Task: structure prediction
Amino acid sequence: MYTDFPNDFVARVSIDDFLGGEKLLNALNTDSPVSIRRNPLKYSADLSIKSEVKWCKDAFYLKERPSFIKDPLFHAGTYYPQEAGSMFLDLIVNQLPISEDPRVLDLCASPGGKSTLLASWMKGKGLLVSNEVIHARSKVLKENMTKWGVSNSIVTSNDPADFDRLPNYFDLIVVDAPCSGEGMFRKDKEARKEWSSENVQLCAARQKRIVMDVWDALQPGGYLIYSTCTFNSDENEDNVRWIISETNAELVEVSSLYFKKGRGGVGYYALPSEVDTEGFYIAVLRKNGETKQRKINLKKKVDLIQFPVEKLKDFYFSTENTVIQWREFLFSIPKVFLEDIYFIYSNLHTIKLGTEIGEVTHKGWNPKEGLALNPTLQNSTIPRIDLNLEQALSYLHGDTFTIDGKQGYYLITYQNEPLGWIKHLGNRFNNLYPKEWRIKMRLDR
Result:
């Protein structure tokens, strides 16, 4: 009955009363639920809603899985498809006594599910650093954070050990650690093929290293949220106990009506045999000690200069942000965190600072995708062209077609939600949608 699962996994789960034995194995053989979170800053897409995800604001189960790629509102960042179990993070952060303007690190952030969730929870306050060590995956993270449309966002691509350059800096660190992926066995058949008992041990050791590498960057009194998408105690409860023994951290309990307490009361599980999720584990630790004043030291000369915003007035407007120039690129960042952003930029490999709004040219400047997708920064007088579904998909595919308009830049929208830019030439237009973001599949299929 369970021939698709690794034999060692079946043997272990079958005798594990905590996991429910065959009840869990049977659940892993059913169809996966489809869930999304809506972006509170943007238009509510017309999706086929089945029910709410009770532990996360603005989150819903869908009746069926749509073709997200063929929905322009998905590309516009109006919602994010995310596994419902991992949305337990929203319930947790809303229970923790964290400052109103926190410095938050999502350490293993790609593709961006937890970072977009954290961004919505922060409501434009504080500073969110989303990190992904693998460079190719960090590009996907940058794309998704750009589409979510928030200004207080930085994307970095660094090894966890690099964060020792920011001692006692973060109020909250989220470590969604790379794991053996047992919780994904229902949704991802490839995860079943890659699993082995040896890999579980390798993952457990790597998870310890990741947490210890980043621990010094956590402010005393701050919180570290540790999570995996797996079921075994080696990567979950045993690792949390080991971290506590090494750091003298405090295990934090949170209130949950929906998730099962872990073995020995350490952490919490989403089990697909008990709730409508994939498998997920999460635990909260508090770093002991007296809160320390942050020391912001620039390790290198910062090649960032402030750019005169009056040159951008036809497109850009913000009283809370300032514009900085890095090489030919223009970024809008919160004024209150200017020093922090310089500090992070001088110590880490940074690929996104706030919102990338433009690119300086020898003739002036061109607007960039970040400005189109951030609803808080756009000048209300920007000329717009609203497309129908067929036109919008063609635009996202990178095509050009006949469209009325005078010469100049236009903000392209679908159902009044911005998608990106074109430069109209009078008789035709240049499609400025980023090449790496374009729909690759044929639209007639």
User: Anything to note?
Assistant: The CA atoms of residues 259 and 270 lie 5 Å apart. The chain has a mean pLDDT of 94. The domain at 383-445 is CATH 2.30.130.60 (Archaeosine Trna-guanine Transglycosylase; Chain: A, domain 4).
